[in-house]
Amino acid sequence: MFKKRLSIKQIAYALVAVGGLLFLANSGILGALPAFIWVSLLFTVGGAFWLGSQGALPMWQRILGFAGIGILATATSGHFGGVAALGFPAVAFGLVYLQNMKRWWALIPAGILSSLALLVTFEQLFPRWDATPILFLGFAATFSFIYLLSPQRGGKRWALYPAILFIVLTVLVNDPSGSMPGWFLPILLIGGGSLMLWWWRRSS
User: Fold this and answer.
1) Could you tell me the CA-to-CA distances from 79 to 105, 127, 194 in Å, in that order?
2) How many domains does the chain contain in total?
3) Alpha-carbon gap, residue 156 to 53, rounded angstroms
């Protein structure tokens, strides 16, 4: 039994490793990595400033400070400037919702802008792949989240219909009857390996 588990573990790690290598080989992630790290750092700084200044600064100063970090990120992040320009307003709308969950409407621009930012990120990191499905998947996740929320937290039953619509659009833009998307095989390998690791650890 031990040898069997060890063999499964080795195969799982091999699948994850091969999937990761395929990701790197089919993407421009290495060249874009410095700018990606920089914009990620500024997102972290912006979030830390907002949380750390709570109760210490007036609201208008917190907003100006957060906006200033967003402008800095947009101006200095190179190809990821678009990610900052979309991502910081998305975070701002998310904070609007978190401060008052009755403002459920803020989740829609937060989700849409986040999906656009994720699309731009994938286009920069993986320029050879069609990232369009990411956009519709983000839209579907946004409305699914609103649907799954409890009514006390702003959940809306009608959000199920746009969620289903965007799920269908996600499938359509993937063109299941045509050529397989370039990112499908790496994700399949990594997902399969991760699932096997989870099963191995659970059964050990």
Assistant:
1) 30, 12, 32
2) 1
3) 32
* Alpha helices, DSSP H, located in 77-183: 81-99, 107-125, 132-148, 160-173
pLDDT (average), residues 79-89 = 85
95 domain residue, yes or no: yes
> Taking the CB of residue 108, how many other CB atoms lie within 10 A of it?
17
CA-based nearest residue to 110, from 134, 90, 136: 90
Q: At residue 178, does pLDDT exceed 80?
A: no
Structural domain span for residue 166: 27-182
The whole-angstrom separation of Cα 77 and Cα 58 is 28
Summarize the confidence of residues 183-194 as an average pLDDT.
Answer: 60
> How high is the pLDDT of residue 2?
44
Give pLDDT, residue 40.
84
